[in-house]
Specification:
Elements lengths: L4 E4 L4 H12 L5 E4 L4 H9 L7 E4 L2 E3 L2 H11 L11 H30 L3 H9 L4 H21 L4 H22 L13 H10 L20 H12 L1 H13 L3
Parallel strand pairs: 1-2
Antiparallel strand pairs: 1-3, 3-4
Helix pairs in contact: 1-3, 1-8, 4-7, 4-8, 5-6, 7-10, 8-10
Amino acid sequence: MGLPRLITITFSHYCEKARWALEHAEVAFTEEAYPPPFHATASWRAGGRRTVPVLVADDGVFADSSDIVQWADRKAPPERRMFGDGAAERREIETLEEQFDKVLGPHARRGIYFYVLPRRAIMMQLAAQGAQPWQTAMFTLMLPVVCLTIRKSLRIDAASAARSFDKVRAIFDQVGEKLADGRPFLVGQRLSAADITFASLAAPLLLPARFGARLPPVTALPPEAASLIHEFRAHPAGAWALRIYEQHRGA
């Protein structure tokens, strides 16, 4: 069958989580990137649920970022396993990963989309990465409809974005409290799925330089959004996530 195929939207933070886990596990794979809405057809054809990421491997199709992390962990050398040492650490890592998936990921996405969707240049830059020329051309024509669909499906408006940022702050505070004792990782003595998940899903509000796709610079965002990025970067949890990116993304 060849190398596993990872089907993505390049700038998706859930796709970044899967991509980072595979790379950390030293799994060779190919990435097939699609701009929205073309990702839905690619996902469905691969056996997914019209969402990404989807990993197509010899031993199955994995259509959820957490399932992909679990698969990568099974392939990883011992020193790069991502679920700790022993049952207790594994339970804690899985609990944190699930919380970040269900709370941090959706609310970070809604919050940043509130500011990015009206910015045509940013949306075009994000969508063009990895896309075929005809897909980029179609995306250009479809952009107003794509943005309207995203806005409606995620229920994005000023009030919902403000509520989402409050949810993100609560998660950041929780993580900051956990890190207050000076530990280098959330659980255990090496990089885990909890660390990768938090850093990846917080990335839209941190814009780390080592993210697996090109993200817009802070200067391209409106002042209110830039202020929020600076706020989250300065938070102990955000500063820690940026260090995790610098020290472990691509390492």
